[in-house]
Amino acid sequence: MGGFLLRKAGAALVVVFLSSVLVFAGVRALPGDPAIALAGENHDPAVLAAVRQEYGLDQPLPVQYVKWIWRALHGNLGLDNRQLPVAHTIVTRIPISLELALLSVLVGMVIGITAGVIAAVRRGKPSDHAATTLALVGLSVPHFWLGLLAIILFAVDLHWLPSGGYVSFGSHPIGNLEHMVMPALVLGTGLSAVLMRQMRSSMLTSLGADYVRTARAKGLSEWSVVGKHAFRNSLITVTTVVGLQLGQLISGVVITEVIFVIPGFGRLTIDSITARDYTLIQGVVLVTATGYVLVNLLVDVVYSLLNPRIRVS
Amino acid sequence: MSFVEVSPVVTPRARRRKILRRRFLRRPLAVAGLAVALAFVVAAIFAPWVAPYSSSATDFDHVLSHSSGKHLLGTDELGRDVLSRIVWGARASIEAGVLSTLLAMAFAVPIGLVAGFFRGWADTVIARLTDVLLAFPFLITAVGLSAIFGPSLTNATLALGIAAAPALIRIARGEALALREEDYVRAAVANGAGDLRIIARHVLPNMTSTLIVQATVLIPTAIIGEAVLSFLGLGVQPPTPSWGVMLSDAQSYLTQAPRLAVYPGLAIFLCSLSFNLLGDGLRDILDPRTTR
Amino acid sequence: MSAALLEVEDLSVRFATDDGDVHAVDRLSFSLAEREVLGVVGESGCGKSVSFMSLLRLLPETAVVSGRARFGDLDLLAASTARLRRIRGREIAFVFQEPMTSLNPAFTVGNQIGEVLRRHLGLSRRDAQARAVELLDLVRIPAPARRVKEYPHQLSGGMRQRVMIAMALACDPKILIADEPTTALDVTIQAGILDLMRDIRERLGTAIVLITHNLGVVADIADRVIVMYAGRKAEEAPVHDLYARPQHPYTIGLLGAVPRPGASRRLQEIPGRVPSLAQLPEACAFAPRCPRADDLSRSQVPELREVLPGHRVACFHPGPTPP
């Protein structure tokens, strides 16, 4: 297992490094004077001179990159267009998005995995057809539409839940959950649809496997056969799928935060892009890529723990 | 130069197509998907004839009206006919969806093929690069690229195509890698067939089913992508209609006219669902090994 | 002569498929005595595995089983699945053919053996683990205390098969049904497994059913042999009798097809193919390939008749080959 993880960690590091180069080069490659871009479209010569000094724009590119990366590693991602430290903004916003993401994954996994197992065990019966159809619907529904519909129903019509905004858990736990319920359910729907299909497919394969026949021949209860033997093997396959869905999840968080007006990291991404705040964009993209790679690495760790062939070899 | 011709292991085309067509017709969901998808495509192409009104015809005396004989789905905040806007909106979605997918495939398939088939340093470079590009989620990349290119439908299509390419490269590469180990390819090599010939006759035709299935998955993703971009203001610009823009506009009128949010979203949903059903059906008939 | 442990009468198994019914087993009857090793021989598809799997209801739902199978005071084919679960692994145990895939890759060997002990004998985890080590030792796996914590992918094919046997013997079953236990293994490993089975019969007194298509294996350890063809019993006799005085043309053909080192005579193959089980004729199933076939065997199903003491044949023209 050590070797497997080491290789994955090494690859992750390479990807993070290359992403940072890409981000750096991307901003520099924009048409026009990078100083203007980094100064937030400010054309004041004095400001531009200061920006050039700050970023060392007169120096060769590799030097600029090293300077930037060095500062980044020390937690300094520069100042955005409103002269606020980028790193601070990012750090305050990440926990919010993290909460949304985690709740959504929880919803997605609980619904998706349970539905998938039930559909596989009752293959061909009405409950299977119903679940499979629902999953297909869940896959095709655009998140943001679902979000709007949810707002219409639960906020506008029924007045059960707030239509948007955010309250931190520390200050108001119930309020926090009230604001998070709809977004998490909406975001979790897409994930649960994918997981349900994958789980069903995996379970069908497992249930047809020889070792399940052996388990039955040993006189084990049907619970044991399905819940222990078949399920455990399917879980291994499903972990890979969850990893693959992370990209969708991140995009989903972004859009959900826009619709539900949640001041999270996702909204920051969009705002920075529409405002053309390049320093902020640089920081946001760097953090996104790094975070994504790290989470993927985490999924690899979980996978290697679950799969004995990797764990013990 | 003479060598023994090794015929591809793909069965005679005509017979295979008939078998596939028969299998497809046995699946009502897939057929339904095909029908609805075609309906959207037709609506997009023939919008000027299908839509009852033009997309920008305003009528300030009848703003936000409910459905009526004159306006089957009612009117929006500027008095424009919602149904017509949806039909015209299909243009943006179908164009973005289909064109961006074609673009991505035209770009990604040759690259992936070269990487997987020839291997060597080109493969290593391409594989690493793809890994890095895949570190950025699809929509985020599309959003970023649109921001760089500037908001317009063409730029959005371009952005979506580029964003979809890395995943496709990886798939094409995987297919090429697997196919080059097939016995009939090895036989062709042993018989002295040139690389180009092998690729054209043996590798590419056997990749088509996977690629077709991938295309039917990419199209709905791109359609939703275009909607998202327009929703965020990075795609189609008003007054050109797009389902995403309609949804964005509807946000301001959620309390007064929630139906303005329902219809465009429904269109996006049905359009993407139909392509998904079509894709599922195609995957079923082209790969009998999937557990159903 | 000990009382029959298992008595099967008119066992028939039919599979409902899209293209019609497939009759895998047709009115099979046999009995198994205590401490007996019964060899069941036949080519692939003759219904030997299916018949025994049906006894424990291990067949897919498309299978329709009829007949009677008396085990103790219970009819296995009529019992509830819950009742059968108490018998599976406890009184009648099954060892499957593919050791590679018959063990769950996600759990340790000890866990999988322990499962049976915990389920049927109510042992605690610790006791089950200890007993598992003993069982691994019984099946002659070296360093059992270490192996018990390992996963199937860490063991060789031969060792996995021994683990399967250990799992089957865990609760000291009365009957051990081994379905092609050596087919997936190297010849050298085969001998070891057969030795083990002999050992088991000696030490534990378990009745063994050995299903195989390999006549050599059967000659080695069986007491009695049943030869099956196209879902029906063709011949049944004590092992030495079968080899010395085969009566059914199919058996004769099978024995003629076994290569014997040193013999210079040509291997005799049986011409023709096994009939499709979807269309079993009301005639002798072997007739199309039989050198002795005539109008009688082409129009009626031969019944089992005792032609020598303890030796039964289903044939209208039994007897040794005319020279």
Could you characterize the architecture of this molecule?
The complex is a heterotrimer of chains A (313), B (292) and C (323). In chain A, 79% of the residues lie in helices and 0% in strands. The N and C termini of chain A lie close together (7 Å). Chain A has helices at residues 2-29, 34-38, 45-55, 61-73, 86-121, 126-140, 143-157, 173-207, 210-217, 222-259, 265-275, 278-306, 308-311. Chain A is built from 13 helices and no strands. With 313 residues, chain A is an all-alpha fold. Residues 1-5 of chain B have low confidence and may be disordered. In chain B, helix 2 (28-45) crosses helix 11. With 292 residues, chain B is an all-alpha fold. Chain B is built from eleven helices and no strands. Chain B has helices spanning 13-25, 28-45, 47-50, 82-118, 120-133, 138-149, 153-179, 183-190, 195-231, 243-250, 259-286. Chain C is an alpha/beta fold and 323 residues long. Chain C is 33% helix and 25% strand. Chain C is built from twelve helices and twelve strands. Classes of the chains: A mainly alpha (313), B mainly alpha (292), C alpha/beta (323). Chains in contact: A-B, A-C. Chains A and B meet through helix 1, helix 6, helix 7, helix 8 and helix 10 of A and helix 5, helix 6, helix 9 and helix 11 of B.
Describe this structure in a few short sentences.
The complex is a heterotrimer of chains A (313), B (292) and C (323). Chain A is mainly alpha-helical and 313 residues long.
Number of strands of chain C: 12
Tell me the helix content of chain C: 25-40%
Strand proportion of chain A, as a percent range, falls in under 5%
Distance between the termini of chain A: 7 Å
Topology, please?
The complex is a heterotrimer of chains A (313), B (292) and C (323).
Chain A: H1 2-29, H2 34-38, H3 45-55, H4 61-73, H5 86-121, H6 126-140, H7 143-157, H8 173-207, H9 210-217, H10 222-259, H11 265-275, H12 278-306, H13 308-311
Chain B: H1 13-25, H2 28-45, H3 47-50, H4 82-118, H5 120-133, H6 138-149, H7 153-179, H8 183-190, H9 195-231, H10 243-250, H11 259-286
Helix pairs in contact in B: 2-4, 2-11, 4-5, 4-7, 4-9, 4-11, 5-7, 6-7, 7-9, 8-9, 9-10, 9-11, 10-11
Chain C: E1 4-17, E2 20-33, E3 37-41, H1 48-55, E4 63-71, E5 74-75, H2 81-87, E6 92-95, H3 99-102, H4 109-121, H5 125-138, H6 144-147, H7 157-169, E7 175-179, H8 187-204, E8 207-212, H9 215-221, E9 224-229, E10 232-238, H10 239-244, H11 249-256, H12 295-299, E11 304-308, E12 311-314
Parallel strand pairs in C: 3-8, 3-9, 6-7, 7-8
Antiparallel strand pairs in C: 1-2, 1-4, 4-5, 9-10, 10-12, 11-12
Helix pairs in contact in C: 4-5, 4-7, 5-7
